[in-house]
Write a structure and sequence with these properties.
Two copies of one chain form a homodimer.
Chain A (H helix, E strand, L loop, with lengths): L2 E7 L1 H4 L2 H13 L3 E6 L2 H10 L6 E2 L2 E2 L3 H25 L4 E4 L7 E5 L11 E6 L1 H9 L3 E4 L2 E3 L5 E3 L2 H12 L4 E8 L17 E2 L1 H10 L6 H13 L4 E6 L9 E3 L2
Parallel strand pairs in A: 1-2, 1-11, 2-8, 5-8, 11-13, 12-14
Antiparallel strand pairs in A: 3-4, 6-7, 9-10, 13-14
């Protein structure tokens, strides 16, 4: 099967002009088919504070009330997404920005209220892999903002890691998919204070152990849970690495 | 040639939930191929004021400094564009939001500084009509935000009427194009205070006369100048009407 790289980049990268420049260079240099999924939570939090909108997080997830949904739509689908697309075009890489509403590519369902009401947050129901296949075969790189839609007229805020995983899984029936999560560290660290203590390989058993020890915590837990779910659902490889290391086979490889 | 409707809707419509609902209904009901171009200046002005960014207008055009470019990118390409796309999807109309950077569909050049420095404002250089033809032939309605790009990594703020005209003109070699400008009035009015005083037809001679009398003034002048330029460049019909009257052959018809 043809190879396909699905790359997810976190907030700190896309929101720092210099880090973003490095990401664009390394992304452009990657050969073959590729899809970029980006976050942008820090800019959203900053803009929220300038607008006097309270940012509330539970378990690392943003509570998305109506005002926050507007805010993240502006920041994710507007500011960050279009900046990346314009930069890719300048580098000669044809691309198009997408939310899940565009071409109906990612449909989701508003998360049911249990002990927490996350508000306008969507759990992915269906990725239309044809949309992505057709764009890729036309030479157009999809750049996906972390927003989906419910098919009833509302956008829904959706975790970028989840979107990257779901897109990777849906395309794994047609492509040999490598899913890479880029962030500001070189990989998953054994000692958070030591940037060079990258764990080269993590399997499920090691994950359980690291989690119990507290070595792996916070936002890394859902990231790795996503990684394992993606592998179980057909993705060939999951890599967690630094944006500047894209395509260099460094970082942490996650395997079942 | 196959018919194609290029519809431009102004700020007051897309920013008022009830007017937007009417627009979506009448747009969805239109048969045949169609493209939607939207504005959104009022929301941008409102958000600018909440963020303490000064909105400066010269001759009805926004001066776009770096902070304002970010702002309009958020509002036009994010908030308004994605709201429209999500609503169209809910109405069963497949669509995708675009700026000029997406799929490199509208390239522009930063306006040279003369007596006024408009800042990050783009004058359209090239519309890639293939991008729009391909989307239309795939059953996808393009929804265009009033932003273009310079091909060097920067988005540029571009008047939505101009974008609608340029897109209509570029597609007029392959389609029989009707270009419709929707706004909050029933058409061009002979007496601004009388909403029913719609001028049914305006030709160039009448335009010069109305302008001299001051009957036509302000934002309507560039709108009509755009209309005449579009007709001269190959567009079949230009109509100026109310959003709710879309497709009903009311309003003002502009002809050479």
């Amino acid at each position: 099967m043809t190879g396909l790289n699905v790359i997810k980049v976190g907030g700190k990268i896309v929101e720092d002009p210099s880090a973003l420049g490095n990401l664009i260079s390394s992304f452009v240099a990657m050969k073959g088919l590729k899809i970029l999924v980006h976050g942008g939570g820090r800019t959203a939090t900053d803009l929220a504070s300038r607008l006097g909108i309270e940012s509330r997080m539970v378990n690392g997830r943003r509570i998305t009330d109506a005002a926050t949904l507007k805010l993240v739509t502006m920041v994710y689908a507007g500011l960050i997404n279009k900046d990346i697309v314009a930069r890719l075009q300048a580098a000669g890489v044809d691309s198009t920005g997408l939310t899940g509403a565009d071409m109906n590519c990612i449909l989701s369902r508003k998360r049911p209220v249990t002990d927490v009401d996350y508000g306008y947050v969507g759990d992915v129901e269906k990725v239309d892999s044809d949309v992505f296949s057709k764009l890729l075969s036309s030479g157009i790189i999809p750049v996906i903002a972390p927003l989906t839609h419910d098919g009833k007229g509302s956008l829904l805020n959706t975790n970028a890691d989840t979107i990257a995983s779901e897109v990777a899984v849906s395309l794994s029936s047609c492509f040999d998919v490598t899913l890479t999560f880029c962030f500001e560290k070189k990989g998953v660290l054994a000692r958070p204070e030591d940037d060079d203590s990258v764990i080269p390989v993590i399997d499920k058993q090691a994950f359980v152990k690291y989690k119990a020890y507290g070595t792996i915590r916070g936002g890394m837990i859902p990231k790795l849970e996503n990684a394992f779910a993606a592998l179980e659902a057909g993705v060939s490889r999951v890599v967690i690495t630094e944006a500047g290391e894209l395509g260099r086979n460094n970082g942490t490889v996650v395997k079942l």
